[in-house]
Write the C-alpha cells for this entry.
Amino acid sequence: MGTRIQTSTSVYKVAGNLSLTIDVHVPEGYNAESGTALIHFHGGYLVIGEKTTFPPNWLINACHRRGWAYATPSYRLMPEANGLEILQDAVDATNWIRDNFARSNRLIVAGSSAGGYLALATAAHPQSPPVTAVLPIYGMLDPAGPRYVKPGQPLASPVDNLESVIEQIYAVRANGTSIDGYAFPQDIATDRRYIWIKALHEAAIYPDVLTDIRGLAQQINERGADAIPEEFRQLFPASFGLHRDFPPTALLHGDSDVAVDVELSRDVAKKLESLGVKVLLEIVKGRGHGFDVIEAPANIDIITNSTGELNGSLSRVFKFLEEAVG
C-alpha cells in the first residue's frame, strides 16, 4: 500500500495585492520538528509557468516514499517583476518552509530550468535558512554567461520585429501588474510571453531586465562580471555566491539540451569542486530539456528501480540527497 499524502495550500507572502501561495505535500504522520523537506521551484525562463508546471514526478514520488515533505511555491514573474523581487520570493518561500515543515534544518532546495537558477541563488542568499543540499535540474545557472550577454543567438528561431518586442518588454516592466503564474501555453510559438523569452535570449538582455539596468549585459560582455553593481550580485550566484561552505550540490542535465546549455551545469560543478564542496554532476547522454519529466515514470521508486542510464542518473541524484540529509 502506498504512503498516504496530505496536501495543503498556504499563503506564504503577500506582495502588494498579490498573495503568493505554496503547495505542500506531506506523508501522513510527518513531523516538522525532525522531518526533511524539499522545496522545488518551477521553470519557465522566469517569464512563464506556475507552481504546477511540469512537476518532476520521479522526485516527488521519491520524497513521498522516503517520508519527506515536498513543496512547490508560486513566485512573481518577469518582466512585471525584476530579479530582486523574484529572488526575494524564493528566499521567503524557503524560510516559510523551514519555519513550518523543516524546523530541524533538514532542507533541500531544488528547481528545474529557471527554477534551478532560483535554487542556486536561494542557497547562496544571506537571508536564506541553512540548506542541507541543492539540486538544480538543467538550470539556467549563470545569467552572466555568454548565452545571456552575447546578442545574436536566437532561441529556436529569430524574433520578428525584435526591437519592437524589446520595447514591449520594457513597457510591461514599467507599467505591468505583477503576476505569480502563467500556464504553459498550448501554442507556444505564438504566445506573447514566449516571444518575450525569445527576445530576451536573442537580444541578450536577461541581465538588463533582471536588474532594471539597460545595457548591463553589454557591460558584462565587455568587462566581465565585475561590471555588475554590488547590490545586484545576489542575482548572479555562479559569479559571486559560491564558497567553500556552500551546501552539497547535485546537478542534473542532458547533454543534448538546446534550451539551456549543459555547460552551465558543468561550469558550476567545476567551481564548486575547486572550492572543496561536495558535488555530483550527472550528465545524461542524448537527453534534452525536460527529459526527466518526459521520460521518467511518475510512479517509479527511483532508488530501487535504477536500471538504465536515465534511471541510474536519477537514482544517483536522489541517493546524493539522502546522504546529505544523513
In short: The chain has two domains: 5-143+230-325, 147-227. The longest strand covers residues 5-15. Residues 147-227 form one domain.
